[in-house]
Amino acid sequence: MGDPITAISLWLDGLLAGWGLAPALIIVIKALLGVGALATAVLLVDIFLVWVERKVVARFQDRLGPNRLGPFGLIQPFADVIKLLIKEDITPVGADRIVYNLAPIMALATVLLLWAVIPLAPTVVGTDVNVGVLYIVGVGALGTLGIIMAGWASNNKYALIGAFRTVAQMVSYEVPMVIALLVPVLLARSMGINSIVNAQDSYWFILVAPIAFLLTLITSIAELGRAPFDLVEAESEIVAGFHIEYTGMKFGLFYAGELLHALTLSGIVASLFLGGWRGPGAESFPLLGIVYFFAKAFFLYWVIMWVKYSLPRIRIDQMLNLNWKFLTPLSLVVLVVTALLDKALVGVQPWVYVLVLLAANLVIAWVTLQILRSRARKERQRVAEPRPIARPPAAPVSSQGA
Amino acid sequence: MLIEYLPIAILLVISTGLAALIVWIGNTFGPRRPTLRKSLPYESGMNPIGPGTRRMPVRFYLVAVLFILFDIEVVFFLPWAIVFRQLGLFGLIEMFVFIFILLVGYVYAWKKGALEWE
């Protein structure tokens, strides 16, 4: 009774074959059942995430959060959903109706699609495609498209500015993200997510690629459009950005999609760098792997929320400078150094390999911090210099008749 | 194998269908009392001036072009990262030449001021 998932799968095989169905049909039915269960479970977790979000933000802001409906306010998100469902559905004048209605669908559906390749346990994975990382990058970019569609179709200037900012932000942060994701691909020599998790049997990749881990986490937060990178929906500047015109459940879909996207990216980072479902006893009891996976994913989710509620929003020029002048070169350096050392260290003991790569990462981090420090010093000097003072013109021109 | 993509195709149908169903439920169960004021695009309480979909500042276009440039080059890294153990020293040097060419373009864009946001 070590693996109930495989047992259920085998029992279904026997049952369906007993009904005299064709083998191809059995595969389709099993895929349908598995994927349906996955989608249902993920959406239930998503409703739960609303509660987590409200409860944790309340604690960060020294409040209690929802605590009236059910124990610890656990039924609150269901009340939220019902409230959103019976709100009026407004389409603004002049909106592009098809694109306007398609955008929230796209925002949620693309995030759900990402779960197809995330391994929850050794035997519980939607499908282990051999281009997993490429799939994540590609489908993740579709979510960005949903936001651009929402901003464009709303016929609202604030929403349009939000869409432009999306182009600038989410699209640029994809470059360092892909380069940082290359590091685990290079270490595992595979793009399949489950193969990468399997390659972390003796050590987690965060040990040999801590900088790539941090880069992936930072670019994930930017891809989410969460604070400090929430320029896309900055409340105090462009009111709500791309979803300003959306009401009722369409807004709810964007909200649910964003929360689920955060958990999805946490799960992906956990799979690539923190060993995914790996933990003591996970091989013999696959259901334990689900517990480990969600423990790691929710830890990263909490870190993302911690960052969100602690840091102020950065300006758009700072955001682009951080990406193009800092994260992109740093990710390239990390990739080159990792490739060089991996080539040089063929056939050494694993602990030597880990130590050398860890030391190399620490050296890169130290050099980066030194460069940043000297730049900060120069910037402080520049700011401290006396500024030219505006003086009235030497011969004031009188506008009133002389 | 193409059979590996079957769950993805099913999930695509299920997730799109679920999201569309949710939108439809909201559309059906919500009240429907449209007025002109309510349907106007929000513009801080004023009547909107001019069309909502305007032309895009060229700065955003520049960033998008930079992204396309870098992303296409980065995609070439992915197959290399998988097989670079087998490629030997040649593959490593070849990729460094590629990264060097990428860096030349990067430095050019930086010096030209394409990375500045003014």
Overview of this protein structure:
The complex is a heterodimer of chains A (402) and B (118). Chain A is an all-alpha fold. Chain A folds into two domains: 7-86, no CATH class; 90-377, no CATH class. Chain A has helices at 4-18, 23-60, 76-85, 97-114, 132-153, 157-172, 174-188, 193-199, 205-208, 210-224, 235-238, 248-273, 286-310, 316-344, 350-384. Chain B is an all-alpha fold and 118 residues long. Chain B has a domain at 58-118: Methane Monooxygenase Hydroxylase, Chain G, domain 1 (Up-down Bundle). The longest helix of chain B is centred in the C-terminal third of the chain and has 36 residues, at 77-112. Chain B has four helices and no strands. In chain B, helix 3 (58-75) runs antiparallel to helix 4 (77-112). Chain B has helices at residues 6-29, 36-39, 58-75, 77-112. The interface between A and B is large, with 88 and 71 residues.
Short key terms for the protein model shown above:
A: 402 residues, mainly alpha, 15 helices, globular, B: 118 residues, Methane Monooxygenase Hydroxylase, Chain G, domain 1, 69% helix, flat
